[in-house]
Amino acid sequence: MDAAISELQKPFLDDRQIASSRTIMGLDTQLIEDGTYFVVELDGQLVGCGGWSRRATLYGGDQSPGRSAVLLDPKIDAARVRAMYTHPDHVRTGIGRLILGLCEAAARSESFRTVELMATMAGEPLYRACGFEAIESVEDERGGTAVPLLRMCKAL
């Protein structure tokens, strides 16, 4: 995760924004406890990870302020795609698409009709290519410096 945040954001963010990203991004261990987090290994090395959630928090790790474990209603709420990271040495190899497909299938199996995520600028091209549409531009200042993000949604 740290390698992805540090390296993949460089074309989009300055050093202060990357440092701020570490406060607002990362793994929410609730995903692991819920059994909704996936990892991809290649030759025994972790090359990607990501998950989905039936809980209200849209993004952020354990250290991020403002998380909510409230359960969503699949009839009216969108499932959340969360904590998607690909190791910089393995981008554009299908890992992100694989994880997104697993997340979408799992959310669909629990009767969710839509999925939503908060995209970094580095992740936006992948999500657009996978059918997500932008709904809102956001600047998150919780880490001390504003980080541009894009809230995106997709119908299942």
Can you lay out the helices and strands and say which pair or pack?
Layout: H1 2-8, H2 15-24, H3 30-34, E1 37-42, E2 45-53, E3 79-86, H4 95-109, E4 114-119, H5 124-129, E5 133-140, E6 147-155
Parallel strand pairs: 3-4
Antiparallel strand pairs: 1-2, 2-3, 4-6, 5-6
Oligomer: single chain
Structural class category: alpha+beta
Under CATH at level 1, the class stands as Alpha Beta
How many separate helices? 5
Order of the strands making up the biggest sheet = 1-2-3-4-6-5
The dominant shape is globular
What is the H-and-E element order?
HHHEEEHEHEE
Distance between the termini: 27 Å
**What's the β-strand tally?**
6
What is the CATH topology classification name?
Aminopeptidase
State the CATH superfamily name. Gcn5-related N-acetyltransferase (GNAT)
- Give the biggest sheet: 6 strands, mixed
Provide mean pLDDT, rounded.
Answer: 96
Poorly predicted spans: none
Tell me roughly what share of residues is in helical segments.
Answer: 25-40%
**What radius of gyration results from the CA coordinates?**
14 Å
Write the CATH architecture name.
3-Layer(aba) Sandwich
Share of β-strand residues: 25-35%
Question: What count of domains describes the coordinates?
Answer: 1
